Amino acid sequence: MITRAETTQTAPTAPQDAGTSPSGTALHATGVHRHFGSVRAVDGVDLSVDRGEIVALLGPNGAGKTTFLDMVLGFTEPTSGTLSVLGTSPQRAVRAGRVGAVLQTEGLLADLTVKETVSMVAACHPRYIPVDEALERAGAARIATRKVKKCSGGERQRLRFALALLTEPDLLLLDEPTAGMDVRARQEFWAAMHAEAERGRTVIFATHYLQEASDFADRIVLLRQGRVVVDGSVQEVTGTGQRTLSCRWIGPGTPQALAVAHGIPDDVTHQGDRVRFTTGDTDALARSILTDGLGEDLEIAAASLDQVFLDLTADTATETTTDTADSTEQKGR
Amino acid sequence: MSTAATDALQTPQTPNTPDQTAAQTRLTGRPRSRAGIIARFAGWDFLRNVRMFEATFFIVVLPAALYLMFGALAEYGDQPAGHGNVTAYQMVSMGVYGAVMATSSMAGSAAVERQQGWGRQLGLTGLTGPGYVLGKVLVALAMSVLPIVVVYTVGFFTGAEMDSAATWFSSAGLTLIGALPFAFYGLAAALLFRSEAAVSAASGLLVVLAFFGNLFMPLTGTLLEIAKFTPLYGVATLARWPQLEGTIVAVQGEPQSDPLGLIVLNVVAWTLVFALICWVAARRTTRRG
Lengths: 333, 289
Prior knowledge:
The complex is a heterodimer.
Chain A: E1 3-4, H1 20-24, E2 25-36, E3 39-50, E4 54-58, H2 65-72, E5 80-85, H3 90-95, E6 99-102, H4 114-123, H5 131-137, H6 153-165, E7 171-175, H7 183-198, E8 202-207, H8 210-216, E9 219-224, E10 227-233, H9 234-238, E11 243-249, H10 255-261, E12 268-271, E13 274-279, H11 282-292, E14 295-302, H12 305-320
Parallel strand pairs in A: 4-8, 4-9, 6-7, 7-8
Antiparallel strand pairs in A: 1-10, 2-3, 2-5, 9-10, 11-13, 11-14, 12-13
Helix pairs in contact in A: 4-5, 4-6, 5-6
Chain B: H1 2-10, H2 22-25, H3 34-51, H4 53-72, E1 80-81, E2 84-85, H5 86-123, H6 129-157, H7 165-179, H8 182-193, H9 196-212, H10 221-227, H11 231-244, E3 247-248, E4 256-257, H12 260-284
Antiparallel strand pairs in B: 1-2, 3-4
Helix pairs in contact in B: 3-6, 4-5, 4-6, 5-6, 5-7, 5-8, 5-9, 5-11, 6-7, 7-11, 8-9, 8-12, 11-12
Keywords (chain B): Membrane, Transmembrane, Transmembrane helix
Region (Disordered) (chain B): 1-29
Transmembrane segments (chain B): 55-74, 94-112, 133-157, 169-193, 205-224, 260-282
């Protein structure tokens, strides 16, 4: 089952033994808040990521993903709470070259070539792998002599990826790494990323797409309004058993009344002449419809990943509206 | 039971791996020192800027060309002026122009690059924030030495004359010092408008200031009186001090001169003004800057 954040207080690795957390944990956040004035961009995140895990940080725009990653990279400090990266402070881990990141911001010099960019950034690291190797592994070797200003969005992302690999980091952070890539570039990017993950790196990536998360991650953490609302394995999150049932409505009464009777009052939509219900128990719903002759041409299908994503976020929206009455629209970037 | 419990307590301590992990041991070579990192960053950035045609054209090529037009090839170039000749006077003027262009555009583009995310990229390396600033100061200094060296070298071979080597070197040194406050000028433009175009515009505006700074042609009358309050006037007069000691070169009329105190006041006052604008603009800058 999906574990709701409120109930997962990191039971298994609780002991405050100094020996365990530095070696075993890539990231440990306890009650991390980051407020910008009255905006609570990150509003109490508890998250522990073990070494070698591949975690997708999922959430709608303004959920606090980028702000959270900024804190992990030491660019901003938490307003409150504690955050440790690879057993030390974010700044220290980053300075030591133990954290690599593909950033969302522009952050490249247009007048340099791809290889020059990697060489220049390498020159600023205390230690690094050969520049050609970083280019090769990021799939950027064949654009090495291209000027950055002539690179497409996907090629720039590959360059950023090469920069992130320079120090053989233990932890890789990717903020929407495939934004602006076409399907083919996306596939190649994830293939390269797979190879890096197999070297034993911990990977945390932020994305909008549940599909991307489920294809690549071991674990999905869903943020909404600055909080972790869902934290579980890909199977747990995507295989929620949610299905959709659609039919042509012919019966007496309204679909809404039926939905209310089945305890799913908000999960009815109309598509043309068809009515669509989303529920975990389509069997019971189908039985009612067929027995009482309410509808015909029934179709039952597993909910799409996007539907699951919308359900998860919508579900938690109703849950959280009570305690975050002041939830303003947050800026994610 | 009790042994199992102690085992469980002790196991966490066994894999107490050192801070350096398996992946990182693959990195070869000795770690670089902080000074080494700053030096390499500055070296890369200097080469990058020298290579950029739009930067070097305005900083090096244009001042040298202007010197040749107004100084070396002018028929009045042989006329004596203070401890040198008129050609040398024009040479120093163009050295000032190039050096000031260098510091203002370098400081401005440094700030813009940082705002546009390059600073974040570098923030993930061993280069610290102060290291970045120090590196950029070194680059700006190197870039402003460039026009001075080029213009003075061209001057040396094309008839610029000053009484002694000390005069040459002291005016070059004063040019460099006087150009430094213009880093604040370029920085202010970058902080206020946050774009490369704004920095270019500010550099363009330097042409107007250079005119009032008495760099292109000797001003007289009302224009001269106005000019004395403009920022480049102080720097230019200071750079020419070893040669002219404040004497204002005029095409005609009674020779005038500026007291050193007022010239220093001009430089200091404008430095403070530019710095103050930077300070205000930086405070206004949003958190993500």
